[in-house]
Specification:
The complex is a heterodimer of chains A (130) and B (130). With 130 residues, chain A is an all-alpha fold. Chain A is built from 4 helices and no strands. The termini of chain A are far apart. Chain B is elongated and about 50 Å long. By secondary structure, chain B is an all-alpha fold. Classes of the chains: A mainly alpha (130), B mainly alpha (130).
């Protein structure tokens, strides 16, 4: 009665040419998740300079924020966070069974909205460093 | 069409917690970015400004909850991504406990940092580490 179907590991990235929109959404969500947890550890490590006192913390933040590369990385972080948030909302709706028929369109909408928010935010993020 | 593509066991506690923390993080992560990059700018951050925010019980408790939920969501996400990738046996156990220890270290470091800023709790953290 039952048929077995070996589709291998779900994350068989060698099949990337066959991936649908939903698969790309899943991969992007996973990639942005890895970046965000990596950043969380870095973020707390930088903030914990506050344990060394007022000056150590303020000097560390001022020094980092004066670097153009840090500002550009912050733009990248914004892109990663916004996509993870928007696609996360999409996933929550999918889990609730809402909008299943348009899950590919909501992925494209997440990408477009992420791009728009990031581009609009660039002036704020790089102000005063160049 | 009964195939499932989720990384999680259906109906599991970790699955539910991942969704609950996601719903919380969607809102708080967006708030965090908005407050610290658009209302205030990252290059204007000083110890005094962080201290003023962290001395509000509402902000302090929100940030501690943010730290704990983000750490859980990230570590649990990584664990499930690796299990989905085929992690099993002894390696799975090692990864699980490494993530548990790393998460505890991250949360403790973050809480100590928050306490160092805050006027709400004075346990002499700066005296210990400064």
């Amino acid at each position: 009665m039952s048929q077995s179907y070996n589709r291998g590991l779900v994350e068989d990235f060698g099949r990337w040419r066959e991936f649908s929109a939903g698969m790309w959404a899943w991969i992007f969500h996973k990639f942005t998740g890895w970046v965000l947890i990596g950043y969380l550890f870095t973020h707390i490590a930088v903030l914990s300079t506050a344990l060394q006192g007022d000056a150590a913390y303020t000097n560390t933040i001022v020094a980092l924020e004066s670097l153009a590369v840090v500002r550009l990385l912050e733009v990248g972080l914004l892109a990663v966070a916004v996509f993870h948030i928007l696609n996360g909302l999409r996933l929550l709706l999918v889990d609730l069974g809402v909008g299943l028929d348009s899950q590919d369109k909501s992925f494209y909408a997440s990408l477009v909205l992420t791009g728009a928010i990031v581009v609009a935010s660039v002036p704020t993020f790089i102000s005063g460093v160049f | 069409m009964a195939e499932r593509y989720s990384s999680f066991n259906p109906g599991g506690t970790l699955w539910l917690l991942q969704r609950i923390t996601a719903a919380f993080l969607v809102v708080v992560l967006a708030f965090h970015f908005f407050l610290l990059h658009f209302v205030h700018h990252a290059d204007e951050v000083t110890f005094g400004m962080s201290q003023a925010r962290m001395s509000s019980i509402a902000y302090f408790s929100l940030m501690i909850t943010f730290l704990v939920t983000a750490t859980f969501h990230g570590s649990n996400g990584i664990y499930n991504a690796l299990v989905n990738q085929g992690l099993s046996g002894t390696k799975k156990t090692v990864v699980k406990w490494t993530l548990v220890v790393a998460s505890v270290v991250l949360v403790v470091n973050g809480v100590l940092t928050a306490i160092a800023w805050s006027d709400l709790i004075n346990i002499g953290v700066q005296g210990i580490f400064g």
